[in-house]
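Troubleshooting log. The previous structure file for this entry was overwritten by mistake, so regenerating from the original sequence record. Sequence copied from the archived sheet and checked twice against the printout by T.R.
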Amino acid sequence: MTTLMLVLALTTATAVLCLLVAAALNPQVPAMRFWALGLTMVVAGALLQSAREYLPLWISAVALTQGYLVLWWGARCYRLRASPPHLLRYQLLFLLAQGLAFFILRDSLRFSILTHSAVVVVISLLMARELLLTSGRQRTLTIAWCVIWGLHAALYLRRFVLYCIDPVYIQATTFEQAEPVEVLNYLEGIVFIYAFSMLCIMFLLRRLQEELKQQASYDSLTNLLNRRAFDQAAQHQLTANRREGHSAALMLLDLDHFKRINDTWGHQAGDRVLASFARLLGGHLRDQDLACRFGGEEFLLLVSNIDGAQIEALTQRLRSQWQSTDVGAGEDSLSATVSIGYTLIAPNEQPPLHTLVERADQALYRAKENGRNRVEAWAPGVVESS
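Regenerated output below.
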């Protein structure tokens, strides 16, 4: 038994080293830090358990269960894409409950194993739940994650039941007396640690791929689609609109006198204006709508399943709300206006996207020529003057 405990500790230590390196190289994925820390605590628990002849059993039990709590926290970080607060509060409350129970039961082997097994079962289910709630999860990785945690929970549930109802395990006072079930759990633990560590690395790679895709498809300042990604998404959306018989509209929006803002208030203020306007656009987007930073201070917006009256109301609402929006510029604030040109797209129309952009640009030109801070719709036969 002691040999298996040491092998498990060595296995976990190797996995911890790999996760620590991965966490150090990728600090933007905080889940890796917690997974590495959680496994470190499991290593400590296994080593303390192998020294049970010299140390009270409750010390190793606390280290092991606290390690599982940190592993779950890592899964929460992965789902939320950030480090949620109050981990220390959870740990202290759990530690207080454990300490009180162990003080009352005087370092009972059976209670230690029952507590540890119950915690592992609950944490295993929570680990699977966190991933199932993660947005954009990958199907194969999700299945593998749920399988390894499901099997882990099943073995520890079996262990819990045996120590509850089997007289042999109820009366056991040493690990050696409960060797049949403990050997199986330690062997499974060795396999589980390797599988879990590999999946952690795969989830890290998955998150890095998502970040690369985000960088390739979105404008870093406004978090709107860039032109390349917008072109691809718009082509798909226009095809879907024609297939479903939905009308649409393409808007081209240009912030008025933006160069003057940069020259007067500085480029940081200009960036804040762009980001603020992008947030305003995002607040009006539905699931099927697409927004893009077209270039500089110009934005494109493709709105589907909308008629002429609705698009006119939407554009006027955007114009009016932006005009009344204040943007911080140091100790002061500034406001700006926007000119909008749009073109309606009938369900039976099949013009290429660049033609639609040209139409919206012609309408935008008229809005600029007619005084800015206004909305113009494209009309056949009406072209911009030179």
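The longest strand covers residues 248-255. Archived copy saved in two places this time.
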